[in-house]
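Most newcomers find our protein records easier to grasp once they have seen one. The structure tokens are whole numbers drawn from a learned vocabulary of backbone shapes. The record below serves as our worked example for the rest of this section.
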Amino acid sequence: MMLAHKIALDPNDVQETYFRKAAGVARFAYNWALDQWQRQYEAWEADPTGTKPSDPAWRKHLNAIKREQFPWMLEVTKNAPQMAIIHLGQAFQNFFVGIAEYPTFNKKGRHDSFTLTNDQFSIKGRKVQIPK
């Protein structure tokens, strides 16, 4: 069971810019992985001897290419793109068991967010520390 804690934040301009960048990186990673997933799945359907798409494989692939192809991703926490792809994997799982619709591309300005794992932030008093 996963517990989520909601914290009301009052970020300054620099922090708000960081949050917007992290949400943008998460959205980009999700949409990039969805596009790649669809292409690989079509190829797998045509030739079932190939590899089926999976979120661990796409996370690993993004890590391998992001420094060269998407260096701006390095400006925010590594959790932003990684957790977005994990969420995409869960969305596909939910779709294939029949409890959700097929995953769709995320649009800017609609539920912009990013996720941090419990070991990637700390709360000290009234301050939340997020690694870069």
